[in-house]
Specification:
Shape: globular
Oligomer: single chain
Low-confidence stretches: none
Order of helices and strands: EHHEEEHEHHHEEEHEHEHEEEEEE
Amino acid sequence: MNSWKLIKLNFGSNPAHFGRLGIGMEETVERVQSDTLFSAWMSVYTRLFGKDAIESLLHKFNASSPPVRMSSTFIYHQKENKTIYYLPRPQQFPINYPKEDLDFFKTYKKLSYLPLEVWQRWYQNDGINNEDIQELIDRTNTKGTNGKLDKAGVFDYSQAFKIDKHPKAAIDRTTRATNFYHTGFVQFQWEKSISGLYFLLKFTPEGEKLADELKAALHLLGEEGLGGERSSGAGRFEIEWLDLPKSWHDVVETKGTHHELISLFWDSDISQEFLKSSAYEIIECGGWIGDVNLRRKKVRMFVEGSVFSQQPQGKLVDVTPTQFKRHRIYRNGIGLSLPIKIRQV
């Protein structure tokens, strides 16, 4: 039987810079996707346990049944003794979503992330109801709301963090000329309320044997920092390695008609049958190899929130540049999904 863990990353007062292919240093996003987290995690695992250990671990990940599947990171926000976990809104309409939605679709479309309790009600239980629809209409018409969606934190996602641009200076080593630029940083709430990132792990029974080593490596990653600008102290965090909270048990164990990705996903052979009745987005992933001036091969992956009628499995994908001979470089395309129900057309 598979076991689940929920991991919180608590950044405290430390800002972070999370880049993504296609955005410059001036910009940042508020969270890290599963392939980036995996790469950073495996890098410190290598330094902690050595070359033989990481080769053995990657061999297990390349097997037909990987020892652990990981989600991307998402926002959590703890306030008034309540923790709100945000999940990506699936790219299909929830149960009971009306055909006529012009009065509130503008507001609905902006809800890229939903609090767990609303996500579960809409996509696993009874679906969207008339009270929800009226509250979305009121919100669209700029009326104040104090309904169930508002109280659940549906409209408060952006309050968990703020993004600022900080001035930086670079000095040319040869000419000593100074170049000023700005770098984007995300700051999670840490004073009046606490917010940060969380992700899910799904272990096989065999994978549970790796938990202590992975936990130790994640502690080291927290000390060194996740993302860019680590030399400035950015991205450092402390971890909470938790058994799956009770509020999540039904979420992962329920039966559904479809599956929503909560990680990135790649596979070498995806059939038209698999894509049938699906709704998805694809991004291009690239980036640099950390200690050399070489780019990894680019690869296109399905993103979180994509919906499939079959459970996505996925694989590691080799992105080693042709001229790089030191070792193989992988991106994590192993999928992790949650069961959902959607509106039937």
